[in-house]
Amino acid sequence: MAVIKVHGSPFSTATQRALVCLCEKELEFDVVPVDMRAGAHKQEPFISLNPFGQVPAFEDGDLQLFESRAITKYIEEEYGQKGTQLVPLDSKKKAIASVWMEVEAHHFDPVTSKLGWEIVYKPLFGLTTDQAVVEENEAKLEKVLDVYENRLSKSKYLGGDCFSLADLHHLPNLQGLLGTSLKKHFESRPHVNEWVADITARPAWAKVLALKGQA
To answer: Which residues form the GST N-terminal domain (predicted)?
Structure first.
């Protein structure tokens, strides 16, 4: 049986999203390093795996995929009987989980990606943080978290009573912001704070953070 391959970097949030899903499903995989500092993600052979030149790219036998959320959905569907069940089987519960997957992609990710770039990554590259961008997106983040607080007051996880892809997809960007002053916005909302503590303590996520530490 061919080993699953993830082409990317453990420092990439999108790569982390695919990796934590594989860890939750208890699957064997190889990480194929892509030197993004050298621009390898914009060149062959990687560009043949993802024509947009973004990590990760994914291979399972003769199947090639890109886009991290598409990868996680495939992994859950293909390997549903292994590890943690990440999408409910009931059609109505599945639909609710799908709504919150869309919320993450369209409301949480755009804001937290901009904040992560400005606060976490720009200083690493010797660039100046744009405070106007930070203030604008910090306000947007607070509005998103208010919605989450309301949802999590009624449900243990965003997608329902059980951990699912709706929660898992948040982990990479969430982890990055917890190391910044923006952590206060998560901690000040009790249900959000409890949810954050729960999902970031999962053993599968610890394995991904360990991979990052080894890179």
So the answer is: 2-83
